[in-house]
Design goal:
With 303 residues, the chain is α/β, with parallel strands linked by helices. The chain has helices at 3-15, 18-25, 29-43, 59-80, 97-101, 104-114, 127-135, 200-209, 223-231, 245-249, 279-288; strands spanning 48-51, 54-57, 90-95, 119-124, 141-146, 154-161, 164-168, 189-192, 216-219, 236-240, 254-255, 266-272. Strand 8 (189-192), helix 8 and strand 9 form a beta-alpha-beta unit. The longest helix is centred in the first third of the chain and has 22 residues, at 59-80. This is LysR family transcriptional regulator.
């Protein structure tokens, strides 16, 4: 017994005409007759009978119609659970802390308006941990900040470039320099993210390439802590510009005119190549395309 047969039977029970049933469902009449006969053979009953040229349901057909309609209704309800308007489920996202407080809120606001029944769980971890969490199927997808990711088992989508800002307190001595090169950071305290952060190795690689040795490195896992310590004048920080936008506008931090190499940091979306993309995940991936509005090299300034 197939759903198609039940649909044909239900329609025929309403039209009481196999020709009209064929037209309504887009089949040839012989197919309608054949499917009804197969259903009758399987049930071992007669569902329709003819009185002259008039088609009628048998008493068995009337009884079966109630069950057939219940099955069809349950089928539609089951399919409806995965329609964009009402589907639910759980979405597990790993996000770099900077993106969690900058780009993610507006993204989730739009997602929640479209899919209010989805339960969203967010973990803030570094890039290395995100990849392991994806491999362990602890999270579904991740948004991270780093250079291009080269992992054979990962699908990677570079969404947009993230301009980096070299920032100091307005009272810091470097705030008065018109141009700042890597060598100018020699002997300065570098306020840095911890190991595992996507853009930390990029920063350290540039300093090493130019033989720059900071006087010290202060590590903070919190972006907020790195900003506040920089504001207090403890040293120099290199952060995604989007994370210091407010502090720059309010004059609490000063962006130095960096003339060193480009940092090449990008917001990237990653998930496992073998991951089954549920409607819940596909919907989020679709919304993330809004970050691709501008070319990667130009950064992205809006959602």
């Amino acid at each position: 017994m197939e759903l198609r047969q039940l649909q044909i039977f239900s329609t025929a029970a309403k039209t009481l005409n196999f020709t009209k049933t064929a037209v309504e469902l887009g089949y040839v009449q012989s197919n309608i007759t054949s499917q009804i006969q197969q259903l009758e053979n399987e049930l071992n009953v007669k569902l329709f009978e003819r009185f002259g040229r008039k088609l009628q349901l048998t008493s068995e057909g009337k009884a079966f119609l109630k069950n057939a309609e219940k099955i069809l209704q349950l089928s539609e309800r089951a399919k409806g659970e995965f329609s964009p308007e009402i589907f639910g489920g759980i979405l597990n996202i790993g996000v770099a802390e900077t993106l969690c407080v900058s780009r993610l809120p507006q993204l989730l606001l739009r997602y929640r308006k479209l899919y209010p029944r989805v339960e969203i769980r967010v973990q803030t971890e570094n890039c290395t941990q995100h990849i392991e969490l994806i491999r362990n199927n602890t999270i579904d997808i991740a948004l991270t900040l780093t250079k291009e990711i080269n992992q054979p088992d990962m699908e990677v989508r570079a969404l947009c470039g993230e301009p980096m800002a070299v920032v100091v307190s307005p009272l810091h001595q470097l705030a008065q320099k018109k141009i700042v090169e890597p060598k100018d950071l020699s002997g300065e305290c570098l306020i840095s993210s911890p190991e595992g952060c996507g853009y930390r190795p990029i920063v350290l690689s540039i300093l090493k390439e130019h033989e720059v040795t900071p006087s010290a490195i202060m590590e903070f896992s919190s972006v907020g802590a790195r900003k506040e310590c920089t504001i207090c004048g403890l040293g120099v920080a290199i952060l995604p510009k989007i994370s210091v936008k407010d502090e720059l506008e309010r004059g609490r931090l000063v962006e130095l005119d960096w003339k060193g190499p480009s940092f090449g940091v990008k917001t990237q979306l990653i998930y496992h190549r073998e991951k089954w993309l549920s409607p819940t995940i596909k919907a989020f991936l679709e919304l993330c395309k809004s970050l691709e509005d501008q070319p990667v090299k130009n950064g992205c300034n809006r959602l």
